[in-house]
Amino acid sequence: MRHAILNTLLLAACTLAGSATAADCLRYDYREVSFKGTLVLKTPETTLTPHAKHRNPTEKHAFLVLDKPICTTAGSNTYESGETNQSELMLYTEQSAGLAQYAGKSVTVSGVLMHAFVADAHTPLMVAVKRVAVLAK
């Protein structure tokens, strides 16, 4: 009997933890959201698609290494998969040159969260950057 009660409590705890996590996941709703982390510039060696070729293999890309991982729920477009435990986001802007000034700094990045939709993407999630603010130390 004691084992049955413990199993029931454990199942209830796991169910509640799972639904709390799902409730905290972000949606692909094209609204502006903000993320905190460290902005890094790097030349990634791999792409998400195994046989995709880099358009420019020596080009540095901007990434945000998140202070805490995020998750997303699946969206309405076929490429908008749900993702879990994502700790790095690829950043892009219409004029990406401006992101280099934030390299190595703790920042808040605001923009639109999207699932990667190009073959040479380096992370499953991307942010179309609208603003970057350096965090106080």
How would you characterize the overall build of this protein?
The protein is an alpha+beta fold and 137 residues long. It has one helix spanning 2-24, and strands spanning 32-42, 61-72, 83-92, 106-115, 125-134. The protein has a five-stranded mixed β-barrel. The longest helix has 23 residues, at 2-24. The protein is globular and about 35 Å long. The protein starts with a helix and ends with a strand. Mean pLDDT is 81; it is low at 1-20.
Q: What strand line-up does the widest sheet have?
A: 1-2-3-5-4
Coarse shape: globular
Task: Work out the number of β strands.
Answer: 5
Low-pLDDT runs of 5+ residues are 1-20
Structural class: alpha+beta
CA-atom Rg in angstroms: 18 Å
* Helix and strand sequence: HEEEEE
* Termini Cα gap: 54 Å
For the largest beta-sheet, the strand count, sense and barrel status come to: 5 strands, mixed, barrel
Mean pLDDT: 81
Number of helices: 1
Percentage of residues in strands: 35-45%
Fraction of residues in helices?
A: 10-25%
Short overview:
This protein has one helix and five strands. It is α+β, with helices and mostly antiparallel strands and 137 residues long.
Which labels suit this protein?
137 residues; alpha+beta; five-stranded mixed barrel; 39% strand; globular
How are the SSEs placed, and which strands pair?
Layout: H1 2-24, E1 32-42, E2 61-72, E3 83-92, E4 106-115, E5 125-134
Parallel strand pairs: 3-5
Antiparallel strand pairs: 1-2, 1-4, 2-3, 4-5
